[in-house]
Structure formats: C-alpha cells, structure tokens
Amino acid sequence: MAIRELKVCLLGDTGVGKSSIVCRFVQDHFDHNISPTIGASFLTKTVPCGNELHKFLIWDTAGQERFHSLAPMYYRGSAAAVIVYDITKLDSFQTLKKWVKELKEHGPEDIVVAIAGNKNDLGDIREVPMKEAKEFAESIAAIFIETSARNAVNVEELFQKISKQIPPLENPEVDSNKSFKLTQQPPPSARRCC
Amino acid sequence: MAAEDLPSEFDVIILGTGLCESVVAAACSRVGQRVLHLDRQSYYASNWASFTFNGLLTWIQEQQAESQPDEVQDWSGQVEEGEDLIYLSQSDSSSISNLQVFCYTSEEDEEDDTPNTTEEEKGGGASEATEAADSNKEDEEETEKQEAEEQVAQDEGAEPEADQPCPSADPNQSEPVKKKKISLAQLVKEGRRFNIDLVSKLMYSRGSLVDLLIKSNVSRYAEFKNVSRILTYRQGKVEQVPCSRADVFASRQLSVIEKRKLMRFLTSCVEETEDQQAYNGRPYLEFLSDQQLGENLQHFLLYSIAMATEDTPTEVGLASTRHFLRCLGRYGNTPFLFPVYGLGEIPQCFCRMCAVFGGIYCLRHSVRCLLVDKDTNRCKAVIDSRGQRISCNHFVVEEGYVDAERKQTATPTRCVSRAVLITDGSVLPSDSDQQVSMVTIPPVEAELPSVRMVELCSSTMTCMPGTYLVHLTCQSVGSAYEDLSPLVTRMFHTTESSDQEERPSVLWCLYFNMVDGSGLEVEGHDLPSNMYLCSGPDGALGHDHTIKQAELIFQKILPEEDFCPPAPNPEDIIYDGENGNGNSAEGEELKDDELKDDEEPKEQEEELTEQEKEIKEQEEEIKEQEEEKEEEQGLESEKGQGLETEE
Ligand SMILES: Cc1cc2nc3c(=O)[nH]c(=O)nc-3n(C[C@H](O)[C@H](O)[C@H](O)COP(=O)(O)OP(=O)(O)OC[C@H]3O[C@@H](n4cnc5c(N)ncnc54)[C@H](O)[C@@H]3O)c2cc1C
Ligand SMILES: Nc1nc2c(ncn2[C@@H]2O[C@H](COP(=O)(O)OP(=O)(O)O)[C@@H](O)[C@H]2O)c(=O)[nH]1
Ligand SMILES: [Mg+2]
C-alpha cells in the first residue's frame, strides 16, 4: 500500500487541549500536566484510508500561539488544519474566527479545515452551544466534531474525517527540479545529472 | 489571545529574529537554556524576512513613513541599587535607504473587483497588514511612483521622457488577449501566495548553513530546490556556464580543446601547487590568463565559478573555485540550493526549533532599556515595551536595536544595493519554465560593480505562475537605482528601454540599499559584558559570516555546551506515563525507516554505475573525436583523480 505523508497543523488558543489531542491520538495517552510539547517537532501516526496509508505528520504550535507569534512557515504545505476551542470557554470559541482568518492568510489554499470543540467531558460547565459551533463550521465548509482528549472521545474520528476529505493523489508532477528535504544522504534522484 | 504577562526570569533574552539571533536562540534552547525571543516587528526574520506581495507593499510604506520618535519614558523607578540604565534605539529604519518602486504594468484589469470575491477575501483572510496594503495600495503606489520619478528625473537628467512606468490601461481593458501583461491588480490578488525575500543569498550545498541545518535536524522544517543552472551575461548575451562534468561534456558552446583545457584546469586547481603560490597577492585574472585558457573559459572561471572580480587576488580566487567544485554534485549539478518559500523560512525554522525546546516567542514586543550592574558591567535585566522588568543572564540583540554611538562599525558604512523585479519571462528561456538560475554579471559599464542575479521560478513559491522573481545584488557604489538600473534596462524590457523582442518585461520593481552586516566589529563595543551583537545580512552569496557569528556568540554564552546537537526524531519521542505505548503504527514506521536506510545506499550504487557508464560513453565519444593517444592518457589520469575527490 502506498504511504502518503500528510502534514496537519493545530491551531487554537493556549490551554484548549491541542497537545492533549495529539497525545491522545498518537500515544493514546492523557496527562493532566502535559509538558508543553518539549522536544517534539511533530508527531506521526499512520492510519489506513481506502487503499492508501495516511501518515499524519502532526505539527503542534510549540507554544508560539501563546503570544500570537506563530511563524508562517508553520502552515507551509499543510494538507489539513485542526482548529481547537474549549467548549467550556466562550473566549476560545470567539477567537476561532481569528484563527480561521490567520489560516486563510498564511495557509495553503486547498487546506482541509476541521474544527474541534474539545473537553466535551465537561458538559456541565459548557459555555459554547454545540449548535452554534456546528453552524459556524458549516459556514466555512469545515469539518466539525466535539472531542475529549481526556476520555478518548472522537479523537480517532476527527482524524478519520480528515483522512476522508483529503483529495486523492494527483498525478505526480513531471517537474525535473523537485523540492526535497536535506538529509545526511542526498536524495537519490538528485544524483542523476543531466 | 488576551495580553498575558511574560515570565519574569530567563537565562537568555534575544531581541530580533534575523538569522544570527534565531540560530543563537535555537542553540541555547536546545541545550536547556530558558530563552525569551522577541521582535518589535509583527513578522519574523527582521531584514532577512520574506513577504507576500501585499506584505511587501506594507513594508515599503513603513520604510517610507517617517519614524516617529516615541515619547521617552522614564524607567528610573525600576532601577535598583547599583544599577545603570541603557536605553535601546526604538527605530531601525536606518538600515534601509534609497527605496524606489516602479510599476511597468497596468494597475487594473477587467476581471478584477468582482465585488463578491474581493469582499469575501477581505472578510475572511485579510490580516491587519493586508488590509492596510489593500486599502492604501493605490494611493501609495501613486505617490511612490511620483516620488521615484521625481528622484529619477533628478538623478538621471538624461532620460526624463522615458519615465512612463504605467502604460495606459486602456488597450489592455478590451479583452484578455494572448500576450496580455499581468496587471498590478492581479499581482496583488495572487500576492498572498508568494514570498519575496529582502535578502538574496543561496546556500552552498557544502556550506556552513547546510551543514548546520542537517546537523541540528532543523532541516526537516523546510524543503529545498536545486539552483538548476549557472548563467552568465557576456557581450549582451545570456549564456549557460557548464558546471558539472556532464555539463562540460554536453556543452555545445565549448570546443573539444576547450573542454579538455577546462577539465585539466579544474582538476589541477583542486590541489594547491607551488606554481599557484607564486601568484599569491597577484590578481586571479593574471593567473588565469597565464594558463592559456582562452577568453571563453577565462570568463566562466573568473566570473561564474570563482565569482571573483578582475582584481581578486589569486589565492582568494582559487579558494572560491575549490569551494564551488566541492559543492558540485551533492544535491544537484550546481553548487547551490534555495529554500522553497524563500530564504525568510530559514530563521523561522530555527525559531521553531527554539520553541520546540521551550523557548518563548513574542512578536510586536521589544526591550526599552537594560539594567546594568555598575560593578560587574553585566546586564541583569531588561525592561520590555510594557514596562515589565525581566531578568536574564545573557542578552543577545540585533545591531539595529543599538544606538550607533555604542557600536564599533567599519567606517564608512558599507551597503548592499538590491533590486527585486517581477518579470514575465526568463532571461534564458529553455525547455523547462521551472529553472532556478544564478547569473553572474561582470560590470556592464566602467565604475559599476559586478552584479549577482538570482532568477526564481514559480515552483519556488516566490512568484505567481507565468512570472519570475529576479533578485539583483551588488556592493553599493551609488544608490541601488544608480548601481542596478543600467543593467535592468539592458537585460529587460521596461518602458525605459527601447522596444526589443526576446527580452523579458519587468512588471514591477523595487530598488533599495541595505546596510552590509559584515561591517560590524565583533569586539570593542561600549556595552555590558554579557551582551552580544548580531549583525544583519551581509552582501556575500553564502551564509558563512552569519553562522560563524552565531556559533561564536553561543560559545561565549555556553562555552561547555555542544552547538545545535541533533533534535530527536519524532518517532523516538516517548511521552512519559504508564500507558504511553499505545501507538501500533510506530513500530511500522520505524521499520519503514530502517528499510529506507537500507535501500538508499543500494540505489546510490546503482546510480553511480549508471553515471559512470554514461560518463565513460561520453568520454569515448570524445576519444573518437580525438585521435592522439597521448591525450587519452591525460584524460585517464584526470578521471582517476575525479574519483578520488569523491567521498
Ligand atoms: C567545468 C568543470 C569541469 C570539471 N572537470 C573535472 C575533471 O575533469 N575532473 C575532476 O575530477 N573534476 C572535475 N570537475 C569537478 C567535478 O565536477 C566535481 O567537483 C567533483 O567530481 C565532485 O562532484 P561530483 O562527482 O559529486 O558531481 P558530478 O560532477 O555532477 O558527477 C555526478 C556523478 O558522476 C560521478 N563522477 C564524477 N566524476 C567522475 C569520474 N571522473 N569518473 C567516474 N564517475 C564520475 C560521481 O560519482 C558523481 O556521483 C569539474 C568541474 C567543472 C565545473
Ligand atoms: N477535562 C479535560 N481536560 C483537558 C482535555 N484536553 C486537555 N485538557 C487539559 O487542558 C489543559 C491544556 O491542555 P494542552 O493540551 O496543554 O493545551 P494546548 O495549550 O492547546 O496544547 C491541560 O491541563 C489538559 O490536561 C479534555 O478533553 N478534557
Ligand atoms: Mg500545547
């Protein structure tokens, strides 16, 4: 089966549970005092989708969202973005629109957007009605789902929904000067010269 | 996104997000230092930044606006016993000068301003910056043009009638015909998708930046493209410089004799010889002409391979020739790489590495003043733009934040002249419209400097499809316009140049001068002992100066620590906690990676033999062409050496 690498970036205010969602998805683990992503450039997990394997490269903000200083390079080449808010914090839902705007500004055009209302285990102190969030998501043609990283609710589903929305692979370009990553070993194809 | 307070204690505070500062930030954070990294701008990378087209228009506006001196606030209330106060400079506009903008295409086109899309884009996507650019675009362009024109008229009294930067829009309004120029409105509309750098440099494939990116694993945040060809401008024509061995064999420009001479020369200059040493201190040109290479080869070797000038000394010329040759073939058949989305990505990548290891980032935030211990002359704390006192052990700052009186700089200040052009065609059209070209241009007139041109295609994400982004760079003699416009007029079609086919048209262009960062002295500043100055971009093609400086600063801060050791792979990170073993995919991925590692060398061996076969075939071709057997032996031995130089 072909493996397709898909970069996914996470957005949303500090404290809404972005890192917890990644940790739940990748490690199936939840920690109340999750250290702020120290040392993790991105985490990966592979899931089957049709006759492809999707290898998600999940980029966390590395805390750069805290003072609203995310670098544009964070969004480059993302296939999808998950914008997270906290259903118990109205503020975090209101700033959602700013994150959508930021994404439109800096992100790729054809990016798949998902909105995740996290901490839905705390329904009794909910401040954001599900209906309102759902309507907003529909208005921007985004995936919508409520999750709980704590109770492992809908986290897998979130990524499954994203997988389904990823458009099928186009024919690989016949661009002789393709871009590549730098590694110790040069990419084999680059060695073939004129 | 409410205004949260910053923590009040750090190990290292870094001000400015240029390349040097960002590398220092990543290096410190990586080994466990608590880093606070600030920039007064709303964007990353200081003078190394890249902008969307709209962002660039805003930047231009900011440069042209007179910077308002802030009211000087009195922070003496925060000063403790035994402390001195040093104020930092609050504006850095001084590093950019002589900015001029020209637009050679129509402002509008008919499909523009369908109210729906424009409105939606504004509502949905525009940041503050874009909105400013959008709403002010036209006025600003107008005034700029006028200003620029006035200045041009003053500077170049000779050709005032030529200035008609925007040909009347009417002919274009009729219908979208085949060869219709892309309008400014279209550039603005598509502008969010491409990234225009203020600095134009390339990465040597075996240079210190590439080495550092690989060593630290920062490289995985970015992608790169090969510069696909080296060109030169000679006698009014653009020519391709044969670069790799295969290029030389394939070259149609070179005669068989020339090919052999070139091969022999390049092989011989890999090793330092006594013959070469005899030329030390004398011009490389003299050395070259004594090798009896002929004019063609001499031009290629001097300007395109050594990237030298007529008076570059031989030892310098040979050193850069060797560097060029060492860098060939690592990733492609020229020595250079360019980051996709532009050079401005690189500082951001190092900043991300810093953040990943716990560094705290805050743009639009600066330091007003430093609190310095009178006895030790060490900076103990800073006061930030909100008046908060934040303590630190070390303070790293980009030189633009420090008043001139405190700095030791080379006098007179050296500058780099820059031009940024959006054009509608390549200077040397070829089968592929996706070439990345480095063009070396000897002085086109006496008194003018030699110029470096980098032409980028749309797949580098620096310009829209159908256009090219052209960067011109040289050491300043006069203003950027004076230094570079004669060349622009010669190589491109503008309204200033007489009608001529075959030359690409300039749609839009920007000239400015930037202070050359290599002029900053490392020592001897009137500053606290734990404060380190980083210089801005220098005029050289590579990044050695900056990377060396960053490493030096890091070693002063943390003499015992390793500089940018590799960050762990994503697969190796285990969240601690009892049940942190859940991901079944992890095993698969590791296996997958191992497989790849196994495969790679095999593939390369195959490549090698394939290449060798190819090369042998070509050599045989040449042999057939030649009949003298002695010559054959010559080639044989060269071939042997070529393999030895391989790693
Ligand atoms: C105009 C020009 C002429 C040059 N002529 C020579 C020369 O005559 N001799 C020389 O040593 N260097 C020559 N060089 C330098 C040479 O191209 C490279 O610097 C050096 O060989 C390392 O690059 P490379 O082999 O990795 O890349 P490339 O030159 O692009 O070669 C690609 C592949 O070809 C293979 N290869 C390269 N050279 C040989 C060889 N001689 N035999 C079999 N396989 C080979 C290598 O395995 C390499 O992987 C020349 C450079 C220039 C710019
Ligand atoms: N109750 C509950 N708490 C959560 C959930 N997800 C995250 N948290 C907590 O919210 C806090 C912030 O989470 P974190 O992942 O660091 O948020 P980030 O800043 O967006 O990355 C942590 O204390 C988490 O334990 C959830 O689904 N339910
Ligand atoms: Mg987090």
Number of helices of chain A: 6
Name the overall outline of chain B: globular
Indicate the percent of residues in helices of chain A.
Answer: 25-40%
Tell me which oligomeric state these chains represent: heterodimer
Shape of chain A: globular
The tally of strands of chain A reads 6
What is the CA–CA distance across the termini of chain B? 52 Å
Instruction: Report mean pLDDT of chain A, rounded to a whole number.
Output: 87
Bound molecules: flavin-adenine dinucleotide, guanosine-5'-diphosphate, magnesium ion
- The CATH topology name of the domain at 12-52 and 342-409 and 520-572 and 594-616 in chain B reads FAD/NAD(P)-binding domain
Examine the secondary-structure arrangement and name the CATH architecture of chain A. Answer: 3-Layer(aba) Sandwich
Termini separation of chain A: 32 Å
Order of helices and strands of chain A: EHEEEHHEHEHH
Q: What structural class is derived from the secondary structure elements of chain B? A: alpha+beta
Largest sheet strand order of chain B: 5-21-17-20-19-18-9-10
CATH first level of chain A: Alpha Beta
Number of strands of chain B: 22
InterPro entries (chain B): FAD/NAD-bd_sf (IPR036188), GDP_dissociation_inhibitor (IPR018203), Rab_escort (IPR001738), RAE1_2_domI_C (IPR054420)
Family (chain B): Belongs to the Rab GDI family.
Domain RAE1/2 (chain B): 416-538
Pfam family, one (chain B): RAE1_2_domI_C
